[in-house]
Amino acid sequence: MLVAAAFALTACTSQDPYTGEEGVNNTTIGAGIGAVAGALGGYLIGKGSSDDRRKRALIGAGVGALGGGAIGYYMDQQEAALRQKLRASGVSVTRVGENIILNMPGNVTFATDSSDVNARFYEVLNSVALVLQEYDRTLVDIYGHTDSTGSAQYNQQLSQRRAQSVAQYLVGQGVNGQRLLVQGMGESQPIATNDTAAGREQNRRVEIKISPLTA
């Protein structure tokens, strides 16, 4: 089942796509991202109240939940680490309330019509994995997106495979798989027009949402 994630963009700071330029750090709490549910693949399978089950599993394993003013500070520190690691990498970093969004353009992450991560992108994902391991009190949602070329069914499947490939790579680098939720969004959430080659290139992407683990 495919469920759209609505990105609320109030009270946020951002980084210009693909430029590596930093935005302003922000501890503001308020804007959020819609909940995501659905059927997932592989060892990252989750159904129903996936966030609740992830939280229970992590807290039960001894990962401390964040609360109060500690949330903003913790996410600020993680955001700063990601911006430093991903500068000039082609990955944009956007702060949305308590959450951090990484946008990984498909033209640098995957070859055309492939779900295999490009070898030249390994170093970038290694950097992401290092930060995620250091800041382990967060949940990590990975969304695959495509342009509208081809059938909706094929695009859904391709986006799922691409998101899964990124998740599997991160787990292979030591990120706890219990933190991860994977969702293929297909062509349902374009960020640019699909009527031009440049727009379609922006729509082919993988996004990682990093959110604080709270009780």
Automatic annotation (TrEMBL):
Transmembrane segments annotated in the record for this chain: 24-45, 57-75
Alphabetic keyword roster: Cell outer membrane, Membrane, Transmembrane, Transmembrane helix
Compartments in which it is found: Cell outer membrane
GO terms for cellular component: cell outer membrane
Main location: membrane
Record-linked Gene3D superfamilies: OmpA-like domain
Domain OmpA-like: start-end pairs: 97-214
A Pfam family per the record: OmpA
Protein's UniProt name: OmpA/MotB domain-containing protein
Organism field: Tepidicaulis marinus
